[in-house]
Task: structure prediction
Amino acid sequence: MGSDRLVDTRSSKAIGQQGTLIVLVPTRDGFVISSDSRAITLGVACDNSVKIQIPKRPALSVVAASGTATWITARVPLWPHDPCGDLDKNGVTIFDPKSEVVKYLEASGTQVRDADLQEIANLLTAKIIAVAEKEPAYVSAFAGKQMFNLILAGYEPSEQRTYVRSIELNLSPDGRALAANSNDFNLPPDGRPGYLNFGDIDNFRAVVFGEHKHYLPPSLEELLGKPSIRDVSNELAADVAVNLVEAAKSAKMYSIGGAVSAFRVTAGGVERLK
Result:
């Protein structure tokens, strides 16, 4: 008697998952960070991606990622009736830079403020080279483009200060060299209030702050009108962080969607809000 289980004869292919908006708002005693949950793979939008991770140590830190921040192999073509279910069942992660940074922080215990970004970049570069040896066509397709951006954020209660550090990895136009660009944001209590955003920023600003600015939350104007970060409450920050992502969703930005995830970081710990 023959088997009733079908054999999957589709070829396996390395592909990337893209699409993100991450918003961080510093407060009088910490910060709030939010993200959407959409990942676009082979043009298909699936709304179940985790973009913010909480390391076990150091305390009061988070790691997030934008760009092509998860590399997987999947069987193609995807199931036409359930492409997201196909990716969940058959997709295999071959590189997750966010998780690599979380493991680095947990192993070293280094505060975000003191983390060696060059060492982290070297670690990620080694992982990319390892993938390139097995999937050269996939990695070379990034030539002249951004691969991903890693965001590390930590709060220092003794200083009442938030540190945000980012590492962006790009492949040179000739596909022969990786370049790591970094940015540091030091957000003291007497600093100017506002927000940081990462991900599909150019489209976000053009769309949400352009023809769809009516979706912007009223709390944004309130936030920007505060004299300093020490005047920003956790509640106000959460409203801005969550509803800027919701505004992008309401404006029908294809790269941003799904449920909003949000965390509040204060001296008391990391609390999930959504």
About this structure: Residues 79 and 86 are 6 Å apart (CA to CA). Confidence is low (pLDDT under 50) at residues 1-5. The first strand starts at residue 11 and ends at 17.
